[in-house]
TrEMBL record:
GO terms for molecular function: flavin adenine dinucleotide binding; monooxygenase activity. Pfam families: Pyr_redox_3. Keywords: Oxidoreductase. This is Pyridine nucleotide-disulfide oxidoreductase. It comes from Lentilactobacillus curieae. Gene3D superfamilies: FAD/NAD(P)-binding domain.
C-alpha cells in the first residue's frame, strides 16, 4: 500500500530542513522529507579547507539574523561557534535543527522519479516503495550537478567538487577556469602551499562594482586573495572554447582565438547546473540551464510542484544565498495553507517578517540579486 502525505520535500539540505521547519511552524504536519543520503550530506562532501563566505554572527536577537540561519530562532554562529563555518560544521548545524524540531526525515532514500497521477504525485523511491503526495517541493541542491563547459576536451578538466585535498596537487603552476568565488578560493589554497596559478575567466567578481554580494566577490574571498595576489595571475575576457591534450601538456583555446598551454590538468571553477537532474528536466521547463518558475516558485508545467533553494530565479532575482532563499519558506507554507482554504497564523507570519525571512514580492530586492 502506498503511503500518503500532503507534502513531500525532496532533499534534507538547508532548503528542505528550512522549509520543513516553516511547514511545522504553520501547523502543517502531514509532510515528509526524503533524503538520498543523510541530513546535510552535501556539506560533509566539501573539502576541508572550504568555508562559508557569508559570515555567521549571533545577531538574531537584534532583528538581523545570522546570515546562514535557516530558521528564525537558530544561529550557526551560536551553535557551532564559527564565523565562516566549514562544510562539516554547517552539516552539524543542519542536523541539530532537524533533531530539535523532530523533523520527519527519511534518510538513505532517493527519489528516483515523480509521476503525476490525478490530483497528486507518485514518488518512486530507491527502496522500491511509492509515496503519494499532493504537493512536492524539490530541494536537491546543485552540488551533485557540477557544470563542465560544453566544449571539446572538457573531459580533461578537474571540477572544483572533485578536489579532495590541496596537498594532492603537483607543485607546478596550475590553471584554473573561472574567476569567481570558487576559482579564487582554489587559487588561494594553492598559493598557501607555494603553488602559483593562472585563472582564465570571461568575467570576474573581483572587477564588479555591484553592491550585490552575488555579483561582487565576497569580502572574505577578496581579503584572502589580496594576501596572495602576487602568486595569482588573472587573465580576463578569456572564454575557453577547447582543450586539447598532447603527451605532456594541455593546449587551451579561447573565444578570441588566443591560446595558452597548461602543464597540469585545468581545474574547472565553472559552477553547477541542477537542470542536469532528471527530476528537474522532467518536471520543469528549463531555460538557460535554469528551471522556469511561476511567481510562487512552482513549475509552469506541473501544478503543485515547487522548487526551493539557490536555483530559484525570477528574472534578475536569483536567490542563490541562504539568506536570500530562506525568505521563501514562510510564503510557500502560506501558499499551501491558502490552497487548502486555511488561514495562516498571523503571529507566525510576523515572526518570519521580524526576522526578515519573508519575501513575497520580488520587487523588494533593492539590489539586483543576480548570481
Ligand atoms: C563551495 C561552496 C561555498 C558556498 N558558500 C556559501 C555561503 O557562504 N553562503 C551561502 O549562503 N551559500 C553558500 N553556498 C551555497 C550553499 O551551499 C547552497 O545554497 C546550499 O547547499 C543549497 O541547499 P539545498 O538544500 O538546496 O541543497 P543541498 O545542501 O545540496 O541539499 C540537497 C540534498 O538533497 C539530496 N538529494 C539530491 N537528490 C536527491 C534525490 N533524488 N532524492 C533524495 N534526496 C536527494 C542530497 O543528498 C542533499 O542532501 C556555497 C556552496 C558551495 C559549493
Amino acid at each position: 500500500m502506498n503511503v500518503n502525505y500532503s507534502v513531500a520535500i525532496i532533499g534534507a539540505g538547508p532548503a528542505g530542513i528550512g522549509l520543513g521547519t516553516a511547514l511545522q511552524n504553520y501547523g502543517i504536519n502531514n509532510f515528509v522529507i526524503l533524503e538520498k543520503d543523510y541530513v546535510g550530506a552535501t556539506f560533509d562532501k566539501w573539502n576541508k579547507e572550504t568555508h562559508f563566505i557569508s559570515p555567521s554572527f549571533t545577531t538574531n536577537g537584534f532583528g538581523a539574523p545570522d546570515l546562514n540561519s535557516i530558521t528564525t530562532d537558530t544561529s550557526p554562529a551560536y551553535s557551532i561557534n564559527s564565523e565562516h563555518p566549514s562544510g562539516k560544521q554547517y552539516a552539524n548545524y543542519l542536523r541539530l535543527v532537524a533533531m530539535m524540531n523532530h523533523l520527519p526525515v527519511i534518510q538513505n532514500t532517493a527519489v528516483k522519479d515523480i509521476i503525476p497521477s490525478g490530483n497528486h504525485y507518485e514518488l518512486m523511491l530507491s527502496s522500491s516503495e511509492v509515496i503519494e503526495a499532493q504537493y512536492v517541493f524539490i530541494g536537491i541542491g546543485d552540488y551533485s550537478y557540477p557544470y563542465r563547459p560544453d566544449i571539446s576536451g572538457s573531459n580533461y578538466g578537474l571540477h572544483y567538487v572533485d578536489i579532495q585535498d590541496y596537498d594532492d596537487f603537483e607543485r607546478k603552476p596550475q590553471t584554473i577556469i573561472g574567476g569567481n568565488e570558487a576559482g579564487i578560493d582554489i587559487a588561494v589554497n594553492l598559493a598557501k602551499r607555494g603553488i602559483p596559478s593562472t585563472i582564465y575567466t570571461d568575467e570576474s567578481g573581483l572587477e564588479s562594482k555591484s553592491a550585490d554580494p552575488s555579483k561582487r566577490l565576497s569580502t572574505y574571498t577578496t581579503s584572502r586573495y589580496l594576501n596572495y595576489a602576487n602568486m595569482i595571475n588573472i587573465e580576463s575576457n578569456k572564454k575557453l572554447v577547447a582543450i586539447k591534450k598532447t603527451t605532456s601538456e594541455y593546449n587551451l583555446t579561447f573565444r578570441d582565438a588566443s591560446t595558452a598551454i597548461s602543464q597540469t590538468r585545468p581545474i574547472f571553477a565553472t559552477g553547477f547546473a541542477v537542470s542536469q537532474s532528471p527530476l528537474i528536466s522532467n518536471l520543469f521547463e528549463v531555460s538557460s540551464n535554469r528551471p522556469v518558475l511561476t511567481a510562487s516558485d512552482e513549475s509552469t508545467i506541473h501544478p503543485n510542484v515547487f522548487l526551493i533553494g539557490p536555483q530559484v530565479t525570477h528574472d534578475d532575482v536569483v536567490l542563490c544565498y541562504i539568506y536570500k532563499y530562506r525568505q521563501r519558506f514562510a510564503p510557500l507554507a502560506e501558499e499551501i495553507l491558502a490552497r487548502n482554504n486555511l488561514a495562516a497564523n498571523p503571529q507566525i507570519t510576523q515572526a518570519y517578517k521580524n526576522a526578515n525571512m519573508f519575501l513575497d514580492d520580488f520587487d523588494d530586492c533593492d539590489v539586483n540579486c543576480e548570481c
